[in-house]
Amino acid sequence: MTESSTEASRMTRTELYAALTLWFAAFVFLDTTSGSGAFLTAASVVAAIVIYLLPVVLVVDVAFRFFRL
Q: pTM for the full model?
């Protein structure tokens, strides 16, 4: 990978704040959701995926920055 393509794939600080805000909103949604229905079930699945996948993406991004991969 060239340096320019590596730089383009890294998160900016604004993207990091947006990702953390999304993670927090998904966490609050899962914590406060009550009831049932197709929409709530689908939204809960999406929120659960965000809750578990986003920290992995952030750790990988930090690892790529630290080790300059």
A: 0.69
